[in-house]
Fold each of these.
Amino acid sequence: MAVPTAGPMHQAGQEWLLSSAPDPAPVLREWELDEFGEIPSGTLWRVAEAPLVESVAAIRRIGPDRLGPILGDVYSDVAWWLLPPDLGDDLDDLRLFTVRPAGWVLRCPPVLHSVQGRWWIERPDGSGRLTDPAVLAAAFGPGGYRTRTEAP
């Protein structure tokens, strides 16, 4: 099975994701078998893990123009947020997050379709755009991040 493509943005997103892999060939082989590809974090992004339901609510608060790639898994109720590689301590006080160290392996499907209940809620688009950790922390915080149009 060939890895599906659907336009330049999605192809660019998949290429960007693969550029994080030390060797993209094994990842592509896994995707062809409808399995997860294993891509280590650290070079272009880091990973913060949070519950899926709370992540969906935060996605709505943040809005599409400020989101980077987010991977979700319906079976494990987890979302993985791709954040800047130089991630500081913005999420340290939020108990819902587990920040993974550089080198942690993200087991992910290709950009265009799901595998075993795991899919890109927000797909990589190839631009390298990542969610701002401070905005993410605010969206999960007590008052929640609000766009200007939602502010009281």
Note: The two ends are 51 Å apart (CA to CA).
Amino acid sequence: MQLLRLLAEHVQLEKPLPWNVYDAGGTLLLSKGYLLTASQQLDALFARGMYADAEALKAHWRGSNSPARPQAFDPFSAWSEVQTRLSLLLREHRQTADFTEKFSQLAQAARRSCEKDPDVGIFMMMQLDLTRYAVAHSVHCGIVCELIASKLGWSESEREVLAKAALSMNIGMVELQATLAAQSGPPNERQRGEIREHPERGRIMLATAGVSDSDWLTAVAEHHETPDGHGYPCGKQSVGQLSELIRVADVFGAKVSARAGRCALQPDQAARALFLSMGGNTNPLAAMLIKEVGIYPPGSFVRLANGETAIVVRRGERANTPSVAAFANPSGVAYGEPLRRDTAKAEFAVSGCVPREKVMVRVNPARLYGYERG
């Protein structure tokens, strides 16, 4: 039996496990059908290390991808499926004979979901749980890259390669990235070495898996190089647009994501830090990212002028007038149902961001966006 380490996107609370779960040594921890009900229980298991039989995982995914599934578009399910498929492909690249074709199909699925409802993709990036960071971060970078490349008028072929490179950029450090997200301290010397080597390692792994597209391979190898020559692994000063856009999206996504050792930056702070660190107006890609994602992106929490706490649902015509749903009154008491507010009106204007860790109220994303079933 070949064991594959599980990531958070493979397991859902309140849903029976579709396969047995083991520890790293193959000892059975949870039987198929077991129902996990507490996030603390799930966090403890992930910290210990949860594994499943690779063949059981593949069989489950093939079954869930059958034509009998409901045809109505559900972006939350679509993005969850993209993350699960990506996790398997990145980890099983050596055993996947048609890796390039399957990866291309995955990139197309991600781009279709982004085209149908990009705000949900941004929402999921801003609401990302650190236990899902390892793979979801690459998916979210792909979303940002697609939005910007589309706005800039990049060709279809350029955007297709961009999506594949963004999704596979961290194939050289998937396991390490999951470890670092849950690690409270800074990387140790060995981990720093792996981080510096992962772009080139990723290029080699992709080439070994059958990828022959030089633009794809180069974008992965150079996505941490910087124009000032202080990037890695080679310290290049000249990199292509694909690599540069992936780097910009990567940096922003990392800034707005929490880790075990630090809280996420507020999106307006992250946007300001990104803009300044990348040369301000001299970096058009950074400026375009801020314009497209917004200073109050979908999924971020905000305070309104009347004291209410709200969650941003969609981007607005202007950066400071997003579409929001208020879910708590000025005293912090939750409403029975979120209330839509027009932030273009003075009484509902956004006065600032609210740290995610300060919000105790849970909202139903599918209901917010009108995708709730039943």
Note: The radius of gyration is 21 Å.
